[in-house]
Amino acid sequence: MSDVLQSLPFPVYNEMVQPFLSEEDEERERRHIEKVQKAFQSYSKYAYRRLNRTEAYLNSLSADDQQLLSNYRTHLDSVRFCIESNQSVIKEILRDLVLYPSGEKGSPSPTDDYENEDMEQKVVVGDNDDDEVVEHIKILKAQSTLKVIARDWSADGALEREQSYKPIIDAIEEYYNPSEYNLNEIKILVPGAGLGRLTYELACRGYACEGNEFSYFMLIAANFVLNLCDYENKYVLYPWVHQYVNNKHRADQVAAVRFPDVCPVLNPPKGHIEMAAGDFLEVYKTSNTYNCVATCFFIDCANNVIDFIRTIYKILVPGGIWVNLGPLLYHYSDLSDQNSIEPTYEDLVIIMESIGFDILKARTGLRTKYAQNPKSMKQSEYESLFWLCRKPTKFENEQATRRRNSASQQEPTDLIVNQDQQQEQKSDMVPQLLEDNHFETEEEKTKQASDLQM
Length: 454
Fold this sequence. Notes:
The chain is 46% helix and 16% strand. By secondary structure, it is an alpha/beta fold. The termini are far apart. Residues 398-454 are annotated as: Disordered.
């Protein structure tokens, strides 16, 4: 990992990641990044495999059917062109090889045979071990990256960014008002930064902003957009070309998207910006470091979301805020080889307050989409959660502790008063009760009087 970080043009906290990697870990990281680069380089080969199956089946149909599908055949030629064009863009993305310069030993070759582990994942579903169904889900991370480019860095993704990023930015600007703070002194961390658009937007407003990302698919693409694109809308992508279903028109599948809609090289942000590679829980362990943590579609990426919440609380300075927006998808919940807990929003509120957060704002039902084809007949959206939490200051925590201690030591005076009143009422009632009863001996009368006084 250290080799990668040193070669990234945009600033990176290299020293934050390096200490956690042994030689064995670095070698494992090296092999992983080779696979990521190979996944990008083998993009078209994998995409053609799917297209070729369709064309082979089309050729097996009767002459009459093929005649009826003549327009469809022409459309498949357009699909092939789009795949080829996407591969050309990927070649540009990889022109600055992030891991090793071209020609070094271990540098991936586009001609290598590649069985993409990162493109396929097994998910075991079923009610019990005897009745399990193994479903192979194609996770085409190279293809997904193209969709995220469209979401984060094209005009076509503006609506999704408005839904997801604007509430976070507005909340931060309201709390850290530009007229009241020197924004370059307000340090913001964006875990799960993806391709860096939210990080860039916050830095453009003057904040000192750091993005953190674990996926090298995202990091490599982010490096390209942030540092290597030299003018706006230079590149053309076809992010929906792999969607063969739910298309009303042939043109919907082969729709073009231009990026970047804003060129960071020509429009550098006012505030400091940097990207850090690595696992959020491993990289960020220093207490009282950031004024704000902004998370978008991130907190459900943990096996145990409590780990994320505790870490965010720890790294915030006293008085700092955590702004979150997103669903509770819980990415590990259905993976047979992963442990996962899936607390509800109701549970999360209890957890956040128990850890120490003050919840200043909370909203539910924010309609948000993620990398959706706007022309598809199938539209998915989340009713996302939004909250703004604050880490109390040391003084506020001390005050709260004193209040709790005081409350626990104070006598329940109301209860004592009520008990006294009840005792007085009992004493007043004793003579009448004794008169209403007939006792054979004075001893019985004395005993009854004693019981009534209790």
